Amino acid sequence: MNKKTEKLFKKELSQIKNVYLVFGSENYLLDKFEKEFKDRYIDETVKGFNLSYVEEQDGVFKNIINKGSTLPIMSEKRFIIVKAGNIFKRGILNWEKFKDYLKDIPETTVLLILVNKDISTNKRKNIIEKYGDVINLKPPRYQDLNKWIKMQFEEKNKDIGYKEIRLLEKMFSNNLQQLDSEIDKICTFVDQKSRVKTSDIKAVITKDRTLKDNIIFEFLDAFSNKKTKKSVYLFNQMIASGEAPQLIFAMIIRRTRLMILIKDFKKSGKSPKAIAKKIGEHPYPVKKIYGYVDNYSFDELKDVLDNLLKADVKLKTGEDKIEDSIQHVLVAL
Fold first, then answer.
1. pLDDT for 41 beyond 90
2. Which residues are 80's β-sheet partners?
3. Are 111 and 18 in contact (CB under 8 A)?
4. CA 14 from centroid of its chain's CA atoms
5. Total domain count for the chain?
């Protein structure tokens, strides 16, 4: 983690500054920073009253001034999160008014500006620094990247050696979004095993991985949407292109368990965001699955999971081929 970020997240709400400009070329790091910032400082119970987003570049500074002049409700602070591209390039209206606003920004307002671009040489960035903190989120490299990869596996209770870490680095460089996605799939694939081996990584990741990623997520969506014919068709496509059937099997089990969990929370009236936080999943897949779960009753989902677990027993005892087991589960949808 960036040292400035570490220092920030150790502070109490009353100690944080009124302005934070966070920038970097890696969307993954910006998204993670935003999530940790909100979890750390914004009270979930009054978030609806005290958190506003500015996401349009047109009129951005005027928008910030208007929203940032409102007092918080039942809270110490009101938060404005700006995600409107590079708002510090020339030609955007009301920059001078925004500078004047920064001089007298209300003590109760916290402004978080996220920019998905390297603006380290931007002169306007230097002006922001007079009134708050500027954080450059640089992707980890070399030894720091090794530590980052190892930490991702440790968080999932998996152990990985240096040789395997180097293999992942070679495949994905420091593309953290892709690395995070692949690490998640590898850990799903190894299931109960605590040690990740080179053979596990190679079984999951193939040369044309981008195409296969798209197919497997399209397949999972078809499965979640109860589209039997499309599920079977995409499954056969993946097998023909060399995707590991063990990975597909593991991902179907994981998706089914998530659907049961999300359906249960949805029944009790929780929103996708609240569910994602409760179960420790990224909001994007939770929101997607939230829209699918009404296609199944609880009994149907439990039947699917039961069929998958029975198939798993048959596979381990050698009674059935994994491809046939998956086909049977899909046809029974």
1. yes
2. 52, 111
3. yes
4. 28
5. 3
Return the percentage of the chain with pLDDT > 90, whole number.
53
Same domain, residue pair 249 and 199: no
Query: Which residues does 127 contact at the CB level (< 8 Å), separation at least 6?
Result: 99, 102
The parent domain of residue 20 ranges over 3-136
* Claim to verify: residue 239 and residue 263 sit in the same structural domain: yes
Q: What is the CATH number of the domain that holds 223?
A: 1.20.272.10
We report the CATH number of the domain holding residue 56 as 3.40.50.300
Please tell me whether residues 18 and 128 are part of one structural domain.
yes
| CA–CA separation, 136 and 114 (whole Å) | 10
Which residues does 302 contact at the CB level (< 8 Å), separation at least 6?
260
Residue spans of alpha helices (H) in the chain: 3-9, 27-41, 47-50, 60-67, 95-103, 123-129, 143-155, 162-172, 176-190, 198-204, 209-224, 228-240, 245-267, 272-279, 283-292, 298-316, 322-331
Residue 161: which CATH number?
1.10.8.60
- For the chain, what percent of residues have pLDDT higher than 70? 97
pLDDT score of 208 more than 70: no
Q: What is the DSSP letter of 294?
A: G
Pair (116, 29) in one structural domain: yes
Q: Dihedral angle at the C-alpha atoms of 62, 66, 68, 71, nearest 10 degrees?
A: 170
Of 174, 177, 173, 199, the closest CA to residue 186 belongs to 199
This prediction's pTM: 0.63
SS (HEC) of 49-113: HHEEEECCCCCHHHHHHHHCCCCCCCCCCEEEEECCCCCCCCCCCCHHHHHHHHHCCCCCEEEEE
pLDDT tens sequence across 284-311: 788 889 999 999 999 999 999 998 888 8
- Model confidence band, residue 1 (pLDDT cutoffs 50, 70, 90): low
Report how far residue 5's alpha carbon sits from residue 3's, in angstroms, rounded to the nearest whole number: 5
Number of Cβ atoms within 10 Å of the Cβ of 182? 20
Beta strand 19-23 pairing with 109-115: parallel
Residue 126: name the closest of 97, 94, 107, 102 by CA.
Answer: 102
Residues in the chain: 333
